[in-house]
Design brief:
The complex is a heterodimer. Chain A has eleven helices and twelve strands. By secondary structure, chain A is α/β, with parallel strands linked by helices.
């Protein structure tokens, strides 16, 4: 598989404080990758930075390339072709991403005009086709509706239709189901899977929910305090969890079968950007902490093909055992 | 006052709202809660699960008397709930407390945590000035906050710490009942686990009865002794958490259980078609029938009542009770 997007040492600082502390990530064509982490870990900022969507006060470093072309510092005209064109993006709250005073059909037509140069009746026909594709019933009539006339799940379908208007090679979905009900979440995840199969589109799913990511993605990156701390093929991540933070996230998820035990909650909270620990950012909350953990940020260690972790203890045998899902 | 009576018993609670459609439209009646009966035992937790708009939060407010039911009644400790707003009700409110989803919204940003935890003691006249200070310190340590954090303002605490402060305040009057409305939804996964552990610990130590309202079946199973599933204002299934999760009887519960994402899932997921219906536009018969794969012609006309199966599980479904001929299932 050839690589579509490559990030090297991507950093983002707000007012001199690092929010993203060096992200290395490669997305292959047609691949589904999950980015998991708690609020403030930088999972959304990563993609906002890559697409030039951060406010001016953010200082961005490193490199992001799509098919070899550098995106960081690229001229606006070039970025505008990539955003919504080669890379589509959908967000958590669909209702606030749509313009409330325009009919949804018009908003989709706008995306079609921008990225594919289609207008008029052709745009409307294409918008209707997209609506059918994302499963909005009665597409022809619903194109004339306003966002408030749709439910949350349907608005997210509209957003997906709009993202598909540019025929993206990569769809970045930032917490696409967090604001939705459980049964609607199931519908949207099914839709994303179906679209990916049909178009061979790559998918980056950003979520705080390991369960959602595990079901949808082939590969998972776990982020903590602005870095990727573990990266593995999905099945391997659950069978051979290496990083204590990933183990903590799994332990914090209440099981749905078996005896009810106290959850192995991770103590404490995420460090503030202005009070980063000197070494490994997770060390103060970690049950396996050693003196060496405070000496410096642990490097990414390859444990198996495609499986790496930034932890000094990741090689220790106790982490090789299987963790019950 | 008999102590054999359950801590909280609600029967046939109904709450109707009038909603106006359009600018000049006539008002439509919306039944947010439609004949809900539930029981919370001492020292036990009843989990109330459902999607947004199913009436689970309204139910929580009704059992506390924060809203008056249009129909039905609530008994606390075996005696009927005094009329909301009356003096006896105010006194009773010290024994039942509520915890909300958004801790920042539930706290006053201009007051320190210590002042806010102390407030219920002052309002209900519990203890004297000297003992109140000690009580605040012991409440804070009971929920895992340091005594020096009493001097902090809400914005100086993290989300998890704020929810702990809200809990400390709710526990100040030594309540017998705690109604928790989505207490963990706004928190990060690792913090959710901390708060769930804390709730279970506090219950063991203080013998609290709890009504735990959530959309998250995993969380509900973790903390509850019994769960009730709500759909459009009614309880559609009620039973032991493990039994309900392993063998859900109502088609809606089946869909909810199968929608729980988890790593390494086996089998296929039931994906419900369509959105949850609008309470103002309630389908006839069983409210779930338009989305139900098992629905038969009878479901569209005849609303099923919540009845016990042979194994004690309460289900409101014609099909689950075997009242309809499987062969007659309409396509």
């Amino acid at each position: 598989m050839s690589t579509l997007v490559t990030m090297r040492g991507l950093t983002v600082a707000f007012n001199g404080q690092l929010a993203l502390r060096g992200i290395d990530l490669a997305i292959s064509k047609g691949e589904a990758v999950g980015l998991v982490g708690e609020s403030g870990c930088g999972k959304s900022v990563t993609w906002l930075a890559a697409l030039g969507l951060l406010p001016g006060k953010a200082t961005i470093g490193g490199s992001v390339t799509i098919a070899g072309e550098e995106l960081l510092g690229a001229p606006a005209a070039k970025l505008e072709r990539v955003r919504g064109g080669r890379i589509g993006m959908i967000f958590q709250d669909p209702a606030s991403s749509l313009n409330p005073v325009h009919r949804v059909g018009k908003q989709i037509a706008e995306a079609l005009a921008l990225h594919r140069g289609i207008a008029g009746a052709a745009a409307r026909a294409e918008a209707k086709r997209l609506f059918d594709l994302v499963g909005i019933p009665d597409a022809e009539r619903r194109l004339d509706a306003y966002p408030h006339e749709f439910s949350g799940g349907q608005n997210q379908r509209v957003m997906i239709a709009m993202a598909l208007a540019g025929q993206p090679e990569l769809l970045v979905a930032d917490e696409p189901t967090t604001a939705l009900d459980v049964t609607i979440q199931a519908q949207i995840l099914e839709l994303l899977q179906a679209l990916r199969r049909e178009f061979g589109m790559a998918l980056v799913l950003i979520s705080h929910d390991l369960g959602v990511v595990a079901e949808t993605c082939e590969r998972v990156c776990v982020m903590y305090a602005g870095r990727i701390v573990e990266e593995a093929p999905t099945s391997r991540l659950f069978a051979h969890t290496a990083h204590p933070y990933t183990r903590g996230l799994l332990g914090a998820l209440p099981p749905i079968t078996g005896p009810r035990r106290r959850l192995s909650a991770i103590p404490g909270g995420v460090p503030e950007p202005w009070a980063m620990p000197p070494g490994c950012a997770f060390a103060p909350r970690c049950g396996s902490r050693m003196a060496a953990c405070d000496a410096g940020t642990p490097a990414h260690t390859e444990l198996a093909p495609g499986h790496g972790a930034a932890c000094l203890r990741a090689m220790a045998p106790e982490y090789a055992e299987a963790v019950p899902a | 006052m008999s102590n054999d009576a359950p801590l909280l018993r609600a029967e046939g609670l109904t709450r109707r709202y009038a909603m106006r459609r359009g600018l000049l439209g006539r008002s439509v009646e919306v039944r947010a809660v439609d004949g809900v009966s539930l029981t919370v035992e001492r020292g036990r937790t009843l989990g109330l699960v459902g999607e947004s708009g199913c009436g689970k939060s309204t139910t929580g407010r009704l059992v506390l008397g924060l809203e008056a039911p249009d129909d039905g009644h609530v008994a606390f400790d075996g005696s009927p709930m005094p009329p909301p707003g009356s003096e006896p009700w105010r006194r009773l409110r010290a024994r039942m407390q509520m915890v909300f989803q958004d801790p920042l919204g539930a706290l006053d940003r201009r007051l320190t945590i210590g002042t806010q935890v102390r407030e219920p003691l002052d309002i209900h006249g519990l203890g004297d000035a000297g003992t109140r200070g000690e009580k605040v310190a012991s409440l804070l340590s009971a929920v895992g906050l340091r005594p020096d954090q009493a001097a902090r303002y809400p914005h100086e605490l993290s989300g998890g710490q704020r929810q702990r402060a809200v809990l400390a305040r709710a526990l100040a009057t030594d309540p017998a009942l705690l109604v928790c409305d989505e207490p963990i939804s706004a928190l990060d996964v690792s913090i959710q686990a901390q708060v769930m552990n804390l709730l279970v610990e506090l219950q063991e130590r203080l013998g609290l009865g709890m009504l735990f309202i959530s959309h998250d079946l995993r969380a509900v199973r973790q903390v509850s002794h019994r769960i009730a599933v709500m759909y459009l204002g009614r309880i559609v299934e009620e039973g032991e958490p493990d039994a309900v999760l392993q063998a859900p009887a109502h088609p809606y519960t089946q869909a909810l259980v199968s929608a729980i994402p988890h790593p390494g899932r086996a089998g296929t997921r039931i994906v419900l078609q369509g959105d949850p219906p609008n309470p103002a536009d309630r389908p006839t018969g069983c409210a779930f029938h338009p989305r139900c794969a098992a629905a038969v012609a009878r479901c569209a006309v005849d609303s099923p009542s919540l009845k016990a199966r042979d194994d004690g599980r309460l289900v409101a479904c014609h099909v689950a009770h075997g009242e309809v001929d499987a062969l007659k299932r309409a396509a």
